[in-house]
Amino acid sequence: MNLRPLGRSSLSVAPLAFGGNVFGWSADEAASFALLDAFTEAGFALVDTADVYSAWVPGNQGGESERIIGRWLAQGGGRRERVVIATKVAKWAPRRGLAPANIQAAVEDSLRRLGTEVVDLYQAHEDDASVPLEDTLGAFARLIEQGKVRAIGASNYSAARLAQALDLSERLGLPRYETLQPQYNLYDRAGFEAELEPLARARGVGVIGYYSLASGFLTGKYRSRADLGKSRARAGAVENYLDARGLRILAALDEVAAGHGASPAQVALAWLIARPSVTAPIASATSVVQLQELLAAARLSLRADEIAALDAASAGG
């Protein structure tokens, strides 16, 4: 499998990332262990999590996803060498924001939960305009100097702020954001493609987008409001996609999928993987069977006319 570099860092990964937000939420520890084993044994490496995962679940406090990954790593067997761990700071209430002291404390907490000495990719989960960018980048620089972080990335940054951060890093000789994590999928296109995509391509920033399957809508599981009952957790988000454009996208996915003997989800991921700006879209699964279906997208090569048909169906919005 061809590996792709994460920006200009020394890290390279297969073209699909696993979203660890399900660990401790819709996947219990046993299921999470099985998913991580299957994912890495298939040759994939990038596992994306955050300190805040999964604080939204009743009874959880946050840190559950990192702890599960840590207990999986503790089983040994070369697991740490097979995985590229990406986690985040800024959104969790006990460690909110990007002040230097908070970043230092948050990474120590994450390292302890993960049971590892280094985070491969440490990301600002969201921008924090109350802290000067040079202070935030300086804090990340110290983590790299301490050997606690290998590379840094930004999530949910605007194009203007990302460009400002990249310029500051270059001018001050600080580590730069090597990756960007935006919301991006076949339905949600404009927010990324208008300004962030050309910036990422021009500056060599890797893109690991989230909501790659639009909260499950692009799997084809939800085709009418009657289908929303299939998942109470996702019903609110999916309902927003059930419009004429969304149904047009599903029809195009169905047509391309039929030609390959594939599923709509595989085609939706393959479309992202084929995008020149995208390094590795993030997708989640709650069973090994579901995961194996998604991983097959990395081997699905779409023709130019199929990509054009999907582009046309998803235009607008």
TrEMBL record:
GO CC annotation: cytosol
Secretion signal, residue range per the UniProt entry: none
Name listed for the protein in its UniProt record: Oxidoreductase, aldo/keto reductase family
Protein origin, superkingdom: Bacteria
InterPro entries noted in UniProt: AKR_Detox_Biosynth (IPR050523), NAD(P)_OxRdtase_dom_sf (IPR036812), NADP_OxRdtase_dom (IPR023210)
One of the record's GO molecular function terms: oxidoreductase activity
Organism the protein comes from: Lysobacter enzymogenes
Record-annotated NADP-dependent oxidoreductase domain positions: 15-313
Keywords per UniProt: Oxidoreductase
